[in-house]
Amino acid sequence: MNEKQRTLLIESASRFPPPQGVKLSYGTSGFRADASILSSTVFRVGILAALRSIKTKSVIGLMITASHNQVSDNGIKIADPTGGMLTQDWEPFADAIANAIDPKDFIQLITEFVKKEDIPIGGVQSAEIYLGRDTRPSGEVLLEAAKQGISSVVGAVAIDMGILTTPQLHWMVRRKNMGMKVSESSYFEQLSNSFRCLVDLIPKEDTVTSKVDEKLIVDGANGVGGEKLEELKKLVDGLIIEVRNTGKEGEGILNERVGADFVQKEKVAPLGFSSNDVGISCASLDGDADRLVYFHIPSICNMKIDLVDGDKILSLYSLFIMEQLRALSKKENSGMIADYSVKLGVVQTAYANGASTEYLKQLGLDIVFTPTGVKYLHEKAAEYDIGIYFEANGHGTILFSEHCISWLESRTNEVSSTSKGSEQHKAALRLLAISNLINQAVGDALSGLLLAEAILLHKGWSIKRWATLYQDLPSRQLKVKVADRTAVTTANAETVVVKPSGLQEAINSETAKFPLGRSFIRPSGTEDVIRIYAEASTQEAADTLAESVAEHAKCFLGLNKS
Ligand code: G16
Question: Are residues 395 and 321 in the same domain?
Answer without folding.
Answer: yes
